[in-house]
Amino acid sequence: xxxxxxxxxxxxxxxxxxxxxxxxxxxxxxxxxxxxxxxxxxxxxxxxxxxxxxxxxxxxxxxxxxxxxxxxxxxxxxxxxxxxxxxxxxxxxxxxxxxxxxxxxxxxxxxxxxxxxxxxxxxxxxxxxxxxxxxxxxxxxxxxxxxxxxxxxxxxxxxxxxxxxxxxxxxxxxxxxxxxxxxxxxxxxxxxxxxxxxx
Length: 199
Hints:
10 helices
């Protein structure tokens, strides 16, 4: 009998926990990201609460593709701080080179999770750099956040998009209009009879 190689599989809980750990280790809190969400959405939803903003940030961070982007970006920042990247990439990330846009491309993978409306929100916070983003862009503190500042802005933008989708759904439900949930998981649950489990 031959030994069959077990396919690689990383535990999802381990990835989620690592994401939270590294955000905290790099000095970013969920509340700080939620404050960006509030800034982006308060004008449109005056009754929006900080609890809602925190919840939506947490839901964005629960997505595996978001976790992958967070962990990848933070790792590159840390390696750049330690001087462990090959030239010229080391210099580009260390100095947040203007023509180096891979950090934004990684951020776009997060923004896209809740649709293209997040791009406007992302562009706004990326240009304004309010709150936590101002600190992450401070080059005098000795840390490199070339990726992390874009990641944090992207998470806030995605959470803002999630809120916008849900507020639209609430309006439709209040008006008695037909509504289809935009979350795949929610849609799958609703499309399966109660005595069956979705695949």
